[in-house]
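Sample A.
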Amino acid sequence: MAKIEFTPSQQAAIDARGETVLVSAAAGSGKTAVLTQRVTELLTGENPIPADRLIIVTFTVLASIEMRQRIEQKLNDLIETDPENELYQTQHLLLSRAKIGTIDSLCGEILRDHFQEVGLPVTYRIAEDNELRTLQQDLLESMLEECYQEGTPEFLTLADFLSERDDRRLGEMILEIYRWIRSYPFPLSVLDRFEEMYRSDAPLKETKWFALYRDHVGMLLEQVLDLFVQAKELASADEKLLEKYVPALEEDSHAFQMMKRALEEDDWDRVCSIYRSHQKQSFKAVRGCEDPELQQRVKDLREYAYGLLKKSSWEPSYFLIDEQGFQEDQAFLREKIAALFGLVRRYAVAVRQEMLSRGLLDFPDLEHYTLELLIREEDGYYRKTPAALSLSALYDEIMIDECQDINTIQNLIFWALSRGEEKVRIGTDEMLTKSQNLFLVGDVKQSIYRFRNAMPTLFTRRKKLFSMEEHTGPGRKILLQNNFRSREEVTDSVNQLFFRVMTEELGELTYNEEEELVPSAPYEEAPGRATELHLVETGNREDDGGKDPAIAVEAEYIAHQIRLMVESGYMVQDHGEMRRCTWRDFCILMRSKKGKVAPLADKLKELGIPCYAEAGQGYFDSFEISVMLSLLRVIDNPMLDIDLFTVMLSPMFLFTPDDLARIRLKDRKAPLYTAVGLCAQEGDPACREFLETLSFLRTQAVILPVSRLVQLIYDRTGFLFVVESMVSGEQKRANLRLLLSYAENYESIGKFGLDGFLRFIGRAIERGDDFICANTVSERADVVRIMSIHGSKGLEFPICILADLGKAFNTMDLKKRWMLHPDYGFGMEIQNQDTCQRYSTMPIDAIRIANQRELLSEEMRVLYVAMTRAKEKLVLIGSGKNIRGHCERLLKTASYGRGVSPFLLSRQRSFLDWILLSLSGSVELGKAVTGETDTAVAGAFRCIFSDIESAQAEEAGELVFHCQPSEKLLRQLTRAIEFEYPDQALQAVPAKVTVTQIAKSKQQEALAQLEEMRLATDDVLSGAQRGTILHSFMQYADFTAAKQDLGKEIERLSDAGFLKEEDAQYLNRRTIRSFLDSKLLARMMAAQYWEREYQFIYEISAREVDDTLPEQYAGEQILMQGIADAVFIENGELVIVDYKTDRLSNPAEFAAKYADQLRIYKAALEQYFQLPVKECLIYSLHLAKEIKVC
């Protein structure tokens, strides 16, 4: 293995000792290699650390497996160079005991050693997700029922306040709050802190909510005032506008300046009062303006300024809540929130008790029980327990990979296991700085797991607090900026974009020289590598059955682009050699795959492009699963008309719409099931057969578990085979097989019965959950991959196509009626019980602002992750109706400000908007937007305006890429083609033969000598077929019973399935009776050992199969397989019997024909039984005579 040359920064990370280290490792910077080398040197360098005194935490199980394998390989390499080194051998043995795994596995190991201290059962298991949801829902319903029975005023008031048609919203709030607080340490303490925020009578200006609100409104007013300044500057350049417009602009501007000064003085009531009393000034009429464009721009600037103050679908109504309104809202919500949090506490206790009683935990439980074992809350401090102190003494270093994605609980666990201070103040940075032996690696720009409550701010705060120098602060930070993955063209485009758009306000860090990618991968020069931004016109395409027309256009466009690149021979570098790209070099990345993978995959397949998509959603909506679920519901309750209708129309039963209309007319008012019964009574064969099948399945459903019932349905209806013949049949069949697996999983958690399974599925559908569809294509195949951006994290691809850039950010969470935030607590809207009108409150408005910033920051990081997956080529695809018009509006908006500000970016709706704003200074792009040209170079981006027709024309036209064959590959192919197998003579010799094949080859039988083949008819069988039937009798018959009553024995064999009933008539009873009366059978039955149809495998020389083989192959052995009709032992010697049905008249002919076959039987069975063969006999059933052969 070639030695890796590490950069100075990488080497610094490998060598750092004696303090906590934070490694900020940019995309493609080789952090895994650095981690592996650091561990190796810790184990084998000066002052080596025993392998079992390390903790290495990775984000995924696969990453932990890979890490362990890499370390083991490093140690193996060292042992190979120095086999006698005891240290290497010892560390290799200890590695199996090293704690290398996920945070869940680490917590699990700790709890298994300390289960008694936290009150866990000796044996527990992790609950399945669906099992857990069902348990939680059942407990919630039970608790709410108890609360209604208790009927306390606090609960009834809360239920009345939150309920509309039912109390579903109350249940949803309890569940959501419960699940959310479990992402934080000591969750019930979190509730106490949030409740305290409502108990306080402090004025608005002293609250956290106002502090955030003030900063946000202050930034908003700065933007508004800046727009007015620009408008006044422009208007002052024209005398008429100076006279007519500037006074109104100054009046408006003065009002907003007064609001800003009042805000700086924390006088919120005055801010609201000024806004409410302000009247927008009217512009005086201007006639004969010399510059109409200037006049319009002044108007646009003012309109845009006022537009910033308007409420969007989720933004606060900024100036409606004053001090009095705030205090009234607080008083109104105080008791209700106390009652709500009381329910959450009660629910949390109930869930914990029920889980413990069942011996169940979930993954958050692992962390919470571990935290309770390691840390206590005391007087505003987190203090390590004795268990934590004893554990921290066992480990010399704790290494955490992907640490940008840890949450507060995990951070506290790592602090508790580390060495350093025994207590830290709650709510301070001390838990980030009071450790001595942590080694943290990550990249905050790749923190994209906000939905799992990852807290990237833990990383950014450490980065600010730590020093670049050794031992000069609470910790050391090391920057790994060299990118060893991507071409310079890719890194240039990434740097260009994020220098302009990623800031602390939007992205939670400023993209600067510390964050930029430094291209360091060794690539050959090649044309066509610039990052491309394709802006595709969708035109007036209609919504196709609920499908997004934009994604349909993009799917076709992307398919044409991929095929063009492959067919034109686009070159990629592979292990230092250039080669033509293949399908597997492409990966299509999407922010969300829901509803978009199918049209994209269908279009690729339509154009002959194989593709692979991650296992997707939509399982319940798939045709085959919806039919099966309908049938299961009908089995459970046949009175369900819609499900019964679905089942009867399905390919299972093949009723037509006309059939069902006729059935329905039998009784329009009765259930459909009754109408089917009426038709069956009148002699309708299809209805009668359907009811018989349904009745059978309903009977079986009572006694069979669900998985066996599902399998029975497949077997009875042949539904698996039916769907396989449909379009995407393999996928449909795989989904149906997966339903079996889901049913088995349901049963594995102790649940049984069809009714319970249907309720389990129904709840999942009601919650909006879905099961994963089956995958039928291997991701390792030569296929184009379609992945979510989250699914691609940690991977790399030669050519990345980032699609659906115009998809709007998902802001549904910002529109909810209640919200949570770790710093700003809990907020909710208030609904007037009389008017049913909802209105916002200061807490929820503040939380919306905070959550919006975090959501958009996460989206910014998601875009970074997507763009940094590309190795050689990055293609960005955005589409829309009137795409040029959209670009023009964005560029115009960018011109209103003094640059691309975080505030401007925060008001955009998609990745495409951000990318276009980052390119807003490009003159060439401006020309392309107006239609002067279709392409533009904007820094590292090549922008292309196009449509489907243009893509098709380009693909049909002259190929733009040309390639030359690789000399290395050409030499390899030539050698392979000219290669001659040294043992060519053996190729014609089979590895395995049967005795019959050998016998026939010895006899050199020709086709003309074979018995004439005759096809069987209803009353005539060929001789070979008759012989087969007779052999079956000889194999399975009870000869003793046959002697007494041959007909009865034949009937028994037929009933048992050994003979077909129609075959029994062809047995020659005279021939059989002759054998039953023969001396040979008497000998066989009197033998000390007797076996029929004795199978054996035997090695013989290859020359016995082909005597033309050269002498050098005489020793080659092949397998020979045979079956002797009967073998018995007589006086310690073997007798071999072979039944023959041939119609030969002379016994000598039998001996000549089968001598070689029996000779082989003799040699093989002598070796098997270790006994001599006394006789080899043929019993001719035709001659009724035994013939001795040897």
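Sample B, a different protein:
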Amino acid sequence: MSISPAMFDVVKARLAVAPAATAPQLSATQAHLLAAPAPDAAHVLAVELRFARLDVSRLEAALHTMVERHDALRMDFCGGQLRIAPRANLRVERCASLAAREAFCFAPFDIASAPLMRAAVVVGDPLVVWLCWHHLIFDGWSYQVFVDELARLYRGALLPPAPRWTVASERAAALAATPSPVDFATRRRQVGLRPLRRLRDALGDAAQIEAAARKLGVSSFEWLLASLALLFSRLGDALCVRFHIADSNRSRAAPMVGPLSRRVGVELAIDDSASFADLVAATSARLAAALREHGDDASPASATIAFQNAPTAAPWPELIGAEALPAPTATVDHLLTLQVRGAALDVRWDTARDTISDATATSLLRAWQQLLTQLLAGREPRDIEWAGRALATPHPAPIPGLAERFEAIVAERGTESALVCGDRSLSYRDLDELSGALMRRLTEAGIRPGQAVLVDIEAPLAYLVAIVALARLGMIYVPCDAQHPRRLVESWGDVAAALTHASGDWVIESNHLQARCDLRGGYRMYTSGSTGAPKPARISERSIVQLALMAGVTAVRSNDRMAMIAPVGFDASTFEIWATLLNGATLIAPAQRLSAAALADWIEAQRISVAFLGSGWFELLVDFHLQALRGMRLVLSGGEVMSPAHAARFLAALPAVRLVNVYGPTENTTFTTAYPLSRIDGPIPLGAPLPGRSVLLLDRCGRLLPPGIVGEAWLGGDGVMLTDGDEPRVRQDAGHGALYRSGDRLWLENGELHFAGRIDRQVKWRGFRVHLDHVEAALRADPDVRAARVDLMRVPDVRLVAEVELHDGAELSAVRQRMAVRWPATMLPSDYRVRAKAMLPSGKRARREQVDTVAMAAPLSPMEAEVLAVLQQALAPVTMAADDDFYERGGHSLLALRVLSELMRRFERRIEIAEFNAAPNARALARCLAAAAPRGDELYVDLTGVTDGPAAYLIPGGHGGDAELALYRAAFGALPIRLIGVRIVSLDAATLGERARLLAQRLAQRSPSGPLRIVGECIGGVLAQEAARLLSPRRVDLLLLDTWPMTDAGVAHYTGRVRPRQLRREAWRLRRLAIQDLARVFIAHCNRSLLRSSYRNDVLGTLWRVAQAWKAQIADVGAPRSASDARGAEVAAQALAHRTAPGPALTLIAPRHSRRHQIAAAWQPLAEVRQWPVPGDHSNYLRRFAAQTRTAVMAWWEMRWQR
């Protein structure tokens, strides 16, 4: 609706307009808003007025007068310049429904076209008026002026002239040394406009607050500001907080409409030991000083605070209600508006939804209410308590002793497998006997219960026996591994003895029998320490048992097969070992370190049901080998923050496999909380405490925090490490027992804990916790290092990068060598960078400029170039040459596994991690890939379905492929032994000797220790004998099935007897099939008359064509019909060209036909031979006489195993 000319004349007669000022200037608020992105689409202020009755035409006239009266209401902005139009036409819209409120009120303004105001009327009962202004022309204090004058104009009053637009000269507030705002953020902030959340509630009795403030000689606002500073300091864990105070910045004598308010920065230091009266006095002084600055403060602040009266107008009988409408978007993290409504002090707390969660916002408001109640009651800041609670889950059953529980499992499941490693296995009874024998040895050596014994054993079987023996005796085992070598572990703490296993016997070095005695068994592991030397975590026997028998989502069942893949120095191995043994399950350990592809195959082949996968392993398997996990029951992952993207892929692909995110430090026995995943809604929570665990979120004064507030996690329960009372990280609490200070910042929402970061520079690196400050201290202690800085970089891959400044003449290689000798691998940077100036004297980092130059070797082939590209992508921004060592240029083991998976994916060939580590550069890896078998051509094939116990490897004869392996599966599938076929056609080599060398390497990698059992059949036996010879002096038990040596006599026998006999038999077999086929064709046509010549000729023609087809097939007997046949023929040709050399003793299973031709005599000049006779000949001893052949194989197996 537009103003009529007559109405305009009446309004103009009532106005007294003062002379206009020239060259209007921007206020600080306007300058700030114009510099913000999209100023025309944000910062709208809106109010809803409700009237019992109203003359809309009079209201319209009054609004038009207000626009003409105040310069700010006629402003627009073009190109960043402020303009004041002489006139502006305000339209009062009519809306049919209240549902249009948000669409009307918060629609964007065109800031280049005045007026930047709109009004609307919704006729009804009551009548509703919406008034909206852009913040470029209006602020909160303008509202009182506007509504007061509007009411008076509506009643027909004459007003004095309004002041013209003037802006006082303001100083910009200094930004130097400004503390960061208190951060309650539990979410990632968005860029630009953010959804708003508005909370409203009563803070308390306004009169009580005013009386308390008056008692201290300050205003209510100053008293409340001090309380808010205390709230933000304690709940935001900051000793210094900064607020923006919204100041009206205008004269009360000549009120003006416009965005004249300013932000006054108030910085308050909080002393936890000071009284609240002291804090109030300091707040009052700081606020007075800030107001004297007269400058708009644009520096970061924790919150913006406005203390206003409620939005009520001057006497306007028709007005029955007024409400400021909340904008849908937030422009600051926290905006607090304090209002006195009658006897109550109300707060309107507007927060950005992407800044904090709903739980955090609600908790902050509730906590302020609790704080005010306690302050009004006279409680001092150090005694303030929040409405927090500890999270604790009790353990449902009594915890038995470790030895008692183990003996009960042995009695119950003595014959079941306790450990399977490669081709070796131990039953629970075996483990009981072997550990019992070691217990006697340890006792005889004088080692007492409670003393620490260093365990320096790599083989899983021996390691397991050792720690079971030590645990049963109540001794403390201290594991060593590649990350924590013996020379370092011995220097970190007192140990009574060292235990090793060599040449099948135990070696006990008891040189420190006077070492301290703890009288409590368990184990000791090390984490990053404050001086560089790692700190010990001493875990009790009770904590081990409680972890192992823990109910809930991490519980292990007796029929589970647990993967033992964590390093023994990593606390996840505690769960793998003891949760398996103390529940009667089976522990499955790989015989060697595995690549990601090999681990995936191993998980499938061993039928693993439960595994703990560190975050890196989890992401690697999800990226490249997800389907390998489809047969599992439970996957636990932890160590670092779980990737939501990888978790979502896992859940979508494997809904039947349970995925659990676990969290907990070494000092609280591996796991503290767990979260079973069912869907992904954002960052993965840490979950709730496991049985026997508790989590307390405390502020810096040790008070429990309410839900939604980030606090430091103190962990309690049965898992807390043992101390002598001198450990600052552990304290005793009257209500919760021992508590461990984790240093992790967590928050609680909906009963689930969430990770918010660290309170220090501790990071997770290679699955271990590392303090960056401690690594820097270790580097600075080196005599060649002048300065050092260490950071964890996450782009493109996680790595620990050290920037060092060296003394003149110093060599970086010497620094790296000394670091490797003195410190564990978990503290070693993956990448060293020498800088001309690593740090400036001020402590600031200098320009990142590399001073070293490297002569780059170019790739020699396309494959080399592609391999180099993969390596460089993994190590970016580090550059590499074709012969550069991957590890020396910053790579690490987990990154190597990812690179290996990518290489195998690109080239579709398979190489093992051992091959990668042997020569980790692009040139050598390209050669390795060129020689590797195609990835789809798998080398090993299970023949018996037995997965436990030692294995024998069968080298097939014939073509060495699937047909022969199918025959062996039919013949030997019923054997109760683990028999694995080797598809020798997958080994690409030019000679049989070269093929045997590749076979020996593969078998040694698959079974690196213990006796190796090899079976060879026919020509495969020649290859098996040569591989066994190459493996000497390692013990090899060799069984040959009807194999002749490749001597002159053997070649003659094969070419003159065996091969012609095979061809004749194959031809006769085909002739029989041809006769049968012709007979079926003839019989099929006998039901019709053959007397008719036409039909008789058709039948004869059909028979002739069938006969010709069979004739051609019989003529081609012996010729290769496929690529597999061609490769098999190549293997046979290589065998005939090979000459057998003397080798190890062997067992020979010989059919009657071969014995008649003296097969054993042919072998006797070359090896010690034990012959086992079976009936039949070469063509039928595995078919017709398979039972007798199986008996002979079992006799060999039992004889070899017992030896």
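Observation for Sample B: The first strand starts at residue 44 and ends at 51.
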